[in-house]
Design goal:
Elements lengths: L1 E5 L3 H12 L3 E5 L10 H5 L2 E2 L2 H7 L2 E4 L18 E4 L5 H4 L3 H4 L5 H8 L4 E4 L6 H5 L12 E6 L2 H13 L3 E4 L22 H10 L14
Parallel strand pairs: 1-2, 1-4, 2-3, 4-5, 5-6, 7-8
Antiparallel strand pairs: 6-7
């Protein structure tokens, strides 16, 4: 399968490495252009391109950029495509976004509004890039770590779930995009290794108005 990546930082590179390791063909991009990514092909074997080239490269695209930049994503290029949304809201980094601060929206909901014709799946946001890099690992329970996904398009979710399983993780479908707040930053499922059962519980325990202490997920 071909995969296009928008955002060549920690998470974009982690997904790129894993996807290449399981035999996919990947093109990675950033906003400053391929010249600034010249070391990537040697390092991880990906093709490099512009955002437009990475978008054209595949029907499945990862967006892994600072959330505040989401409106720069070219909506028309991503029409009908499966868009994997790994973004999180960090107010200190992204600046205040009132709809998120007031819990009137989700991070994926904002992206979906900007990309109304794309098939958005929230995924890879609730795991540290350094943990993702390791691939799926057994937990002390003996089960594999599970990653949550959410989206409104079942076929898109299934394609993404297949990829997550190829990376060695179990998958838990948390429901539609409106439910994706359950594994946003500072919720109990955020960046904590859980197997499917533990993740199911953490998602169920999440409360819309209550956040975990900042940084408690960084061990
Ligand atoms: N790091 C983690 O452990 C982790 C885990 C899960 C989710 N996330 C989330 O994933 C997103 C990316 O995080 P990261 O840690 O990978 O960030 P990062 O290391 O800072 O990398 C961000 C990448 O996005 C590119 N970029 C910035 N603006 C862009 C734009 N408008 N169009 C295209 N590319 C753009 C940057 O390159 P240029 O500036 O050159 O364009 C850079 O390659 C964030 O929302 C973060 O919260 C991070």
């Amino acid at each position: 399968m071909r995969i296009g990546i928008i955002g060549a930082g920690s998470i974009g590179r982690a997904v790129t490495r894993l996807a290449i390791a399981v035999g996919h063909d990947v093109m990675i991009s950033n906003s400053r252009g391929p010249d600034t990514l010249s070391k990537i092909p040697q390092c991880i074997g990906a093709k490099i391109g512009t955002v437009q080239e990475a978008s054209d490269f595949s029907g499945i695209i990862l967006i892994a950029i600072p959330l505040r930049q989401y409106a720069s994503i070219p909506a028309e290029l991503l029409r009908d495509k499966i868009v994997m949304d790994a973004n999180n809201y960090y107010p200190d980094r992204d600046g205040p976004i009132p709809a998120l601060d007031e819990r009137r929206a989700t991070t994926s909901g904002l992206l979906a509004k900007h990309l109304p014709n794309s098939r958005i799946v929230k995924v890879f946001n609730a795991i540290l890039a350094s943990d993702l890099e390791k691939g799926g690992q057994r937990l002390p329970s003996g089960n594999r770590r599970a990653l949550p996904i959410a989206g409104n398009d079942d076929a898109a979710k299934e394609s993404v779930a297949t990829l997550v399983r190829q990376f060695g993780f179990d998958v838990l479908d948390a429901g539609s995009l409106t439910e994706s707040w359950r594994f946003e930053r500072a919720k109990p499922a955020y960046c904590i290794p859980f197997d499917r059962e533990g993740l199911r519980q953490a998602l169920a325990e999440a409360q819309r108005d209550i956040d975990m202490p900042e940084g408690s997920w960084r061990r």
